[in-house]
Amino acid sequence: MHMQEKSAKSANLIEVAMKLMNGIRGKRTALSGSLRLAHPREPLRIRKEAAAAVETKLRQQWRRGGRPTWTPHDENAYDVVERIRKETERRNRNNVTRTAAYWSVFRSYPELHWALLAHMVSRNGGWSMTDLRGEWLPKLLDARTAAAVFRMLESCNALIFRDAYPQLRLYEETRRTGRNLFPLLPAFGVSAFMAPFWERFRIDGDSAMLTAALIVNEQHVIEWRVVQDPTYRDDAAIAAAMFSQRVLQLNQIVFPLGAPSDGGSGGIPRLAGRILERFDDLAERIAFGKSLYAMLYAYPKVLNGVLAFAEAVPHSGSRADYWPSLFTADQADQEDQGVKEERARLNSVQIKAGGRPDHSDRTAGGNAGTRWFSPRLEDAWDDQPLGPVNDYDWLGSDGLASLRHMRSLRPPLVFDMTSEHELGQRKLQAATLAKDKLLR
């Protein structure tokens, strides 16, 4: 019986290796898929004259000593600040509430491009959090490491929301009341870097420049409070987990293009996205965010697909939100592991060249037992309060060097991630089987 089990494990490992090779060959199809999605293309640029005007304002602010100190100057302003603070704290409860808040802002004010970008990136943050309690990572990471990685992901998400959401709400209140409320930005600890960009946006409505500025700002927010924080930077387990993800190219941000069909074998959306190579590199994270934004707004097919998905599918944190025929959020759907591995071996997804993932070879029409477990956030993790935050201004340590990121926006050429994303799951599956084989 033991020999039969070892033989089955070896067969599964060989089969997964073959699927990995298929996935690697599928990389070639990403280029053709990207070319189709990239046409037509809309112009997206940061206007030089607008950027120069903002730079002049920033240099003047810098000479005056950076961010001004805010003190309540009238009762109405105090009420606005307190209301937004309470709302921010309430909606910053977890990844699901944050993601919904971004979407609500975007639906009301679609000129706030960053709100849609943040909504989609926040969805990915939730999927990464639940992966830690999903099909593969619990077999590769010990519980302490998984909890530490979750705390890091949650801190990044919560800090960005804490900084950015009040900015979005001040814009909403400015529009609603007709009063310029951006002088209240210091009340929320927002960097002096952002004030001239919001003032300019109020005048000319240049969504591209404002979005790029928010990307630069929010990456600086987490740089000094998380990435360079010794709590996370010096944790060997976190470092090992992040290194493994980089080697396997698993730091993927994916945007589903359309909603999954109900019941259809081929009714799952293609994915557009990118792979972040080095999370610990500030300049790379900024360039990555700008690339995602340009992909989203320079290519109408991507934007329309993302909007269709976001409108139709509420965020739960489970990857079943976008690929329900590959993932399941319900633990009850899980069969005996040995049976499931054999079914997965027989029913692996094939990515046709340039086409949609084809599930027609699955028995029982994609039986739940063949799916990978991806829990909802509420079933995976308890809420984690953010705690006190030091509101120092990152502009003081960076000077004006970050203005170099405000020069251009370049959409990526290769961004069809459909095959690459499934390949990432296959890599995790192979790593799990290999570890299991070594331990036997």
From TrEMBL:
<dbReference type="Pfam" id="PF10720">
    <property type="entry name" value="DUF2515"/>
</dbReference>
<protein>
    <submittedName>
        <fullName>DUF2515 family protein</fullName>
    </submittedName>
</protein>
<dbReference type="InterPro" id="IPR019658">
    <property type="entry name" value="DUF2515"/>
</dbReference>
